[in-house]
Amino acid sequence: MTTLPQELAEFPQHWADTECRGDVEELRRLLTDDFTAVGPRGFVLDKERWLDRYASGALVHDAFAWTEVAVRRYGGAAVAVGVQRQQSTYDGRDADGHFRITQTLVEEDGRWKLAAVHLSPTGAR
């Protein structure tokens, strides 16, 4: 098994911590300019719409964890798969969830960034 570079190995936890805080500026640095997210109900968000959920105050996490993460590197790209659990509200409504999450990471200008994320609900709570 190939050892991952430290930044890549630590990226999943750093991303999860940043999402939990809703830190728009750090997320802006972690996402590629052409970032795309596919949400648990099939909706698609670009980088600005992803960030706006936090900037507007619409999305708030009380708890957010990404566990069972496996990262595989392919040259200047990597795929991370894990389980995301969140206790959240969106526009004041319950947004708790349990998802299988897949991330596509790319090395850009010497840093690892998130290019895409896809969330699939698992049905667990």
TrEMBL record:
SUPFAM superfamilies attached to this UniProt entry: NTF2-like (SSF54427)
Name this protein carries in UniProt: DUF4440 domain-containing protein
Stretches that traverse the bilayer: none
Domain DUF4440: 14-114
Pfam families membership: DUF4440
InterPro entries linked: DUF4440 (IPR027843), NTF2-like_dom_sf (IPR032710)
Species assigned in the record: Actinacidiphila rubida
